[in-house]
Write a structure and sequence with these properties.
Layout lengths: L1 H16 L4 H4 L5 E7 L18 H8 L2 E7 L5 H10 L33 H7 L3 E7 L18 E5 L12 E4 L2 E4 L12 H15 L5 E6 L11 H7 L14 E2 L2 E2 L9 H25 L6 E7 L11 H4 L14 H4 E7 L8 E3 L3 E2 L3 H9 L14 H4 L10 E5 L5 E6 L2 E5 L10 E5 L15 H14 L14
Parallel strand pairs: 1-7, 1-10, 2-12, 2-13, 3-4, 3-7
Antiparallel strand pairs: 2-11, 4-5, 5-6, 8-9, 10-11, 14-15, 15-16, 16-17
């Protein structure tokens, strides 16, 4: 009898240590952190050729992971680029195709809203059991609209709802979900709360709070978009080191404020480097945090930029060679406006210090995240192709082409077709304007227009431009409004 009691105790102890509940045996789906800089150029990181200043943490991310050499943003400006990312559709299909205030004022802030029927990757991941958080600049719908981040799949949002308000790094308020939170001491002139630092703190708290859950953290930083300004502790490091300095003074003011939202800056060069340094520190802290929490092996970190380098508010991309070897800037559909840095870091999965020439774009993130989460999407058509095979060193399916359209500056289209690049300008005057043709394998700077030598290739690209563009009732080319 004594032996029976002893055996019973052993069996009960074993049962307690080896529960049969299925939930305990379930492997937690990988976490996804997507960090997106604002107007950071292809050449603004050390690992992409920057020599004027250092980016040690972003370089560390690349050395521990994979660097993409041919990755493209969703668009050449903020809102449509974000829409392409969230919906997995290029700008010929995605709902938001331009930066449009649609009559909203500073008091009634925000951009034209992403329609309620649009499906975002945040909605899909949330349905799959992920905790979802967005921290930074939204720009896809004014507060309380169907485009509000909390209506588009995010459990938590903290930051700037409106990208125009995000021109001010010391704003009067930020949004906590749908609550407008005043920042004490920030009256538009004082420098009490540097918003990127406060937003970063909220993001770090999200990581802490959800370390035991599968999560998707979208981190669209406002850095280094103008205005060019940084706290003194960072400015002091770089003041006087990038001479001659570039001074910026707003041309027009209203009630003491720049109409554009960009405030005066006497040391634009130092401010730009200081801002990138802040972003670099934030990236480093995120890397360190996932390791500290013991979740690095199960967390994919992606880093990129929403478009090419800007020239607003005193920014000086030529001084820093921000677009590297590429032609063009923000608002161009040449490579400098849309080819962006992209780094993937996943210690257990991605080979360290690896490089890929795989041609990819923002709309590929949607299917990549689906593959990582091992979930499906049967509610919308997407243009993306998962680049998870590239991350894992497996055979990769390639795009037949990539497509962009841009409604501003006369209307523009672009197509990437293997080594070929087609660019069409001035569509407002002529929707069938001539197409410029470049061979990127031989002419990365897009200097030698080969359209006359390769008419068949031009016709093929013209056909793609017609096929890829679907009419939009909201965002239309000028010639479609007639």
């Amino acid at each position: 009898m004594r032996n029976f009691h002893l055996l019973l105790i052993v069996l009960l102890t074993w049962a307690c240590q080896n529960p049969t509940d299925k939930k305990s045996d379930k492997v937690k789906a990988p976490n996804i952190i997507y960090i997106m800089a604002d107007d950071l150029g292809y050449g603004d990181l050390g690992v992409y050729g920057q020599t004027h200043f250092e980016t040690p943490n972003m370089d560390r991310l690349a050395k521990g992971g994979m660097r993409f050499l041919q990755h493209y943003s969703g668009s050449t400006v903020c809102a449509p680029s974000r829409s392409a990312l969230m919906t997995g559709q290029h700008t010929g299909h995605t709902f938001i195709r331009g930066n449009s205030e649609r009559g909203f004022t500073l008091e009634n802030e925000g951009q034209y809203p992403l329609a309620s029927q649009e499906l975002t990757i945040a909605e899909v991941l949330k349905k799959a059991g992920y905790r979802t958080g967005a921290f930074g600049k939204w720009g896809l719908g004014y507060p309380g609209s169907e485009g509000d981040p909390t209506a588009q799949g995010f459990d938590q949002f903290y930051g700037y709802n409106c990208q125009r308000v995000a021109h001010n790094y010391y704003p009067t308020h930020l949004w906590n979900n749908r609550t407008k939170e005043a920042l004490e001491g920030n009256d538009g002139h004082s420098t009490e709360t540097y918003a990127p630092n406060l937003i970063h703190q909220k993001a770090m708290s999200f990581l802490e709070e959800n370390k035991d859950e599968s999560f998707f953290m979208y981190y669209p930083s406002v850095i280094p978009h103008a205005e060019m300004i940084a706290p003194e502790e960072y400015m002091a490091k770089y003041r006087g080191k990038f001479l001659p300095e570039k001074e910026y003074a707003p041309k027009r003011k209203k009630d003491g404020y720049s109409v554009s939202g960009y405030n005066a800056q006497e040391e634009g060069h130092a401010a730009f480097v200081a801002m990138v340094s802040i972003l670099d520190d934030h990236v480093g802290q995120i890397i360190d945090k996932v390791h500290e929490l013991g979740i690095a092996e199960n967390t994919l970190i992606l880093f990129t930029s929403d478009n090419g380098p800007h020239m607003e508010g005193g920014a000086d991309p030529d001084y820093f060679d921000s677009n590297g070897p590429l032609r063009g800037y923000k608002r161009d559909l040449y490579e400098g406006g849309i080819r962006v840095p992209m780094i993937a870091y996943w210690p257990s999965k991605i080979k360290p210090n690896s490089i890929t020439d795989h041609i990819s774009a923002f709309w590929d993130f949607f299917p990549t995240a689906l593959a990582i989460a091992e979930t499906e999407n049967d509610m919308t058509e997407i243009d993306g192709i998962s680049y998870l095979p590239t991350l894992l060193g497996m055979e990769q399916t390639n795009h037949p082409y990539l497509y962009w359209e841009f409604l501003e500056r006369g209307g523009r289209q672009a197509v990437r077709l293997g080594q070929w690049k087609g660019v069409r300008l001035e569509m407002a005057k002529n929707p069938k304007a001539p197409i410029e043709l470049y061979n990127l394998s031989e002419d990365l700077q897009e200097q030698n227009n080969l359209a006359e030598q390769f008419p068949d290739k031009v016709r093929e690209i013209d056909s793609i431009m017609s096929l890829a563009h679907q009419n939009s009732e909201v965002f239309a080319f000028p010639f479609e409004k007639n």
